[in-house]
Every structure is written in structure tokens, then in C-alpha cells.
């Protein structure tokens, strides 16, 4: 026989269970509604903003293409400055001719880079970024003062070493641009740079061996 106390206790237990079930259902419904109104969690490696292009972008408000145009123009200007020293210092006519070609070709490319900058990014300030891949690589170990004060084989050895390193930096920059640029003109330009400068690196490396040049 069931006592009145047991019946009372059983009824209370049923009321509590019903309240718990109702509270649980309400919590689940609230959580579902909350999840639908909240944005998905973004990991530290992701962003809801427009994707950036490498470490160089983290410190600049300029787009990648702006940075490439101005930085490659600066890189070319350095090559032209080096090439302008050759005619009065080199002991080899082949190197003098290459230097003249560099002045003409890269001078024309500088003009093209600046034209694109004015067309695509009018009234924008300088976007030179020394952190772009290849830029610091080009400058490492270079000394224009030593180059300017040398003559003959000493100059040629130093010039070839510096220009080969400088060209390799340009290759890195151009390869990076092929992957990141939004302008097909820059991609085509970069492919041309790679083709030309790989050939010149090969030629300059061969001259170093043929002329038995070494930096002392």
C-alpha cells in the first residue's frame, strides 16, 4: 500500500522534472537563436576583411600593386645608377654594352611603372616598401662607395657580384608579383623581368669565370 507521503513526494518530483524539462527546452531554443545572429568565429590566421599579401602589407595602407610599382621602380633606379658607373671604370667592352642596355631598358621600364601608377592610383603618395620580398635581398652587402672608388678588373668583379645579387632580388620580387598582383599588365611585366634577368645572371656568371674575376 502506498502512503500519502509517498504520493505527495512523487507528485512533487513530477512537477520538478517538468520544470527542468521546460527550462532545458527554453535554453536550447535560446542558444540556437543566438548562434544564428552571431558571426562565425575567426581564427587568428583568418580575417573577414580583404586578404592581405604577405608581411609587407601589415605596415602599409597601400595596396600590393601600388607597393610593387613604386618599389620595383626604385629597384630599377638602383640598377641604372650602378650601370652608369660602368663606362668610365670597366675593363671589358661586353660589360659596357650590357650596362648601356640596362640604362635604356630599365629606364623605359621605370617610365612604364610610373605611368601605371598614375593611371591606376592617381594622386597617391609613394608606396615604396623595403620589406617586399627580394628588396632587402638586393641591398644586402652592397656598397656603392666601394664600387665608385674602384677601377678595371676590381670594379668589374665587384660590379658583377653586386648586379647578380641585385638581379636575384628582382627575380624574387617578380615571382611574388605573379602570385599576388591583380593587374595582368604587372604579371606580364614580371614574367618579362624574370626572362631577361635570368639570362643576364647567366651571362654575368659566365663572364666572372672567363675573366677570372674575384672580389678581394
Brief account:
The chain is mainly alpha-helical.
Number of helices, counting only DSSP H or I runs of 4 residues or more: 7
Give the CATH architecture of the largest domain: Up-down Bundle
Structural class: mainly alpha
Provide the low-confidence segments as ranges: 1-59
- Please report the distance between the alpha carbons of the first and last residues: 111 Å
Question: Topology of this structure?
Answer:
Blueprint: H1 4-37, H2 64-83, H3 93-120, H4 135-139, H5 144-148, H6 152-180, H7 184-210
Features:
Ferritin, 216 residues, 7 helices, 69% helix, 2 domains, disordered N terminus, mainly alpha
Question: Could you walk me through the main structural features you see in this protein, from its secondary elements to its overall organization?
Answer:
The protein is mainly alpha-helical. It folds into 2 domains: 1-37; 55-210, Up-down Bundle (Ferritin). It is 69% helix and 0% strand. The longest helix is centred in the N-terminal third of the chain and has 34 residues, at 4-37.
Amino acid at each position: 500500500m502506498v502512503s500519502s507521503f509517498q504520493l505527495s513526494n512523487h507528485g512533487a518530483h513530477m512537477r520538478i522534472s517538468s520544470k527542468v524539462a521546460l527550462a532545458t527546452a527554453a535554453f536550447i531554443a535560446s542558444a540556437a537563436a543566438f548562434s544564428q545572429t552571431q558571426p562565425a568565429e575567426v581564427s587568428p590566421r583568418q580575417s573577414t576583411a580583404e586578404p592581405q599579401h604577405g608581411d609587407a602589407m601589415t605596415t602599409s595602407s597601400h595596396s600590393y600593386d601600388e607597393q610593387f610599382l613604386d618599389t620595383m621602380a626604385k629597384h630599377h633606379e638602383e640598377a641604372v645608377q650602378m650601370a652608369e658607373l660602368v663606362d668610365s671604370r670597366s675593363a671589358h667592352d661586353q660589360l659596357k654594352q650590357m650596362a648601356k642596355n640596362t640604362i635604356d631598358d630599365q629606364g623605359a621600364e621605370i617610365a612604364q611603372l610610373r605611368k601605371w601608377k598614375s593611371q591606376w592610383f592617381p594622386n597617391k603618395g609613394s608606396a615604396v616598401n623595403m620589406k617586399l620580398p627580394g628588396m632587402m635581398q638586393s641591398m644586402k652587402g652592397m656598397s656603392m662607395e666601394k664600387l665608385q672608388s674602384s677601377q678595371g678588373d676590381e670594379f668589374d668583379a665587384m660590379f658583377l657580384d653586386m648586379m647578380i645579387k641585385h638581379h636575384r632580388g628582382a627575380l624574387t620580387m617578380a615571382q611574388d608579383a605573379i602570385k599576388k598582383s591583380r593587374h595582368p599588365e604587372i604579371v606580364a611585366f614580371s614574367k618579362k623581368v624574370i626572362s631577361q634577368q635570368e639570362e643576364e645572371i647567366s651571362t654575368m656568371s659566365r663572364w666572372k669565370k672567363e675573366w677570372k674575376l674575384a672580389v678581394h
